[in-house]
Amino acid sequence: MSRVQDIAAAAWVPVFSSFQKLVGDAIFDLAFPQWEDEQRRLVGEACHGDNSLPAWVALDGGEIAGFITVELNHESGKGEISFNAVHPHFQNRGIGTHMYTFVLDWLKGQGMKVISVSTGGDPSHAPARRAYEKAGFTCAIPSVRYYLEI
Asked: Is residue 139 part of a domain?
C-alpha cells in the first residue's frame, strides 16, 4: 500500500504547487494543510478501507508504476474513475493509457453505461486532461472552486 500512496504523493506535487500559486500561501495553508498526509490517507482508504473501491496497479519492469481506482453504481449504470496516478519516473510511457483502456473495458463488462472522471482545469492538470481525452472522454462540464478566508 505504501508504494501506491508514495505514487499519489509524488504525482500530485505539481498539482498542489499549482494550487498554492493560484490561491496564494495564506489560503493554501488553510485549505490544504498537510495535503500530502491527507492524500495518502484518502488513497489508503480507497484501496484498503472499510468501503474500499476496486483498485489495480500498473507494473513496469516488475515495479508498481501507477494505480487506479473506480466507483460503480449498478442501479444507474454509472461508473467513475476516481483516484489514479502514474509515478513521475514512469510517466510518458503509455502506462496511464493502458490503465484507462483496461479499466474502461472492465467497467463496460460490469454493465456500466456511462463513465466519468474528474480533473482540474489548471495547467498542472493538462497532462491528465490529455490522457482522458486520449482514452475517449469528450464531453466535459467546466467547474470552478472558489476559496474565501474568513
From this structure: no
Domain around 124: 2-134
The residue behind cell 496516478 is 85
3-state secondary structure 38-65: HHHHHHHHHHHCCCCCCEEEEEECCEEE
The answer as to whether 71 is a domain residue is: yes
The CA distance from 37 to 16, in Å, is 13
In three-state secondary structure terms, 143 is coil
Spatial separation of the C-alpha atoms in residues 144 and 29, rounded to whole Å: 20
Angle between helices 126-134 and 95-109 (to 10 degrees): 50
In a domain, residue 147? The reply is no
What average pLDDT does this structure show over 78-105?
Answer: 96
Dump pLDDT digits (tens) for 101-137: 999 999 999 999 999 999 999 999 999 999 999 999 9
Predicted TM-score (pTM) of the model is 0.91
Amino acid at 27: I
Average pLDDT (25-38) is: 97
- Burial class of residue 54, CB neighbours in 10 A (0-12, 13-18, 19+): middle
